[in-house]
Amino acid sequence: MTESQRPSGEYPMYPSYGNGEAAYPPPPSYQPAPPASPAPTGPFGPAPEPPAARRRVRKPVALIAAVAIAAAVIGGGTATVIGRLTDAPAATAAGSGVVPGTTVSQSDKGTVAGVAKALSPTIVEIGATSTAGQSTGSGVVITSDGEIATNNHVIADASQIKVTLSTGRTYTADVVGTDPDKDLALIKLQGASGLKTATLGDSSQVAVGDEVVAIGSPEGLTGTVTSGIVSALDRDVTVAKEGDNGQSQEQQGGGRQWPFEFGGQQFNGDTGESTTTYKAIQTDASLNPGNSGGALINMNGEIIGINSAMYSASSAAGQGSSGAGSVGLGFAIPVNTLKADLDTLRAGNGS
Fold first, then answer.
1. What is the rounded average pLDDT of the residues 4-15?
2. I need a labelling partner for 152 at 20 to 30 A (CA). Which of 52, 115, 280, 332 fits?
3. d(C-alpha 6, C-alpha 252), whole Å
4. Which residues are marked as active site?
């Protein structure tokens, strides 16, 4: 046979037939696996893990992604509802818990200036006219439509009540309810709306040494700010139940030194026969006639007490009004007492 001159590979490849070494091309040295066999092995060792197993691993990731997408779609409304439920104060009128209102900005927290800036618009001056004459006190705005908390002795027996906001605007106010035993009262402005309200804090969290700010209208000086610390807790303070009881000392500017008893002594005059005693927060923040009914505030801008009584050296010494002034002994009704009494006051009832 003549040797072919064609280069290798130029012959077409056809299926070969035959057995053993005579077959072309020669058969493999092993029997190939049947086509239907699912054996995972191949010519180069074990085959990779089947795709199905990898898909099973991915399923939880895909599920998480699907849940995340669904949550993103509905999350806004759901988060709002959940937030309203979880952020709602545990108590809004009694005991502990915080009743939300005006707050101090984050940058101003912990400063007297920050507290004064935020809370001054929520403190008002109260002018009460009664048969005993004209007196000046303070109050705290607790609702945007003009509910104001103050001392009972500030408005007791008043025939007319005028309230001046920090802006200078004046309203006529009506008495909603009084509680002489707690020396608390609730009045409401006529035709008011959109007022800034104070945040009522939790006086059970107050500790001796805490820094505090007092805001009120001593001697008719609206929006006066002083500061100090909490000097003591649970002081027994006794005051007259009614405004005409006792002999209060009239002060210049229409103010009045409201009589009270502390430590077995009487100050600022005679409290009379009808009195009540309550546990008070003692502070060295300067309080003067006209501060009664105003706010004692912590450094977060939360009301922790309603200022109610202040000691004047002149009252103990029997001197005239020229010697009046704060000597660092003031007292405030704990705000939790006010919160526990709000429903009673709003119902027009008292103890």
1. 53
2. 115
3. 132
4. 153, 183, 292
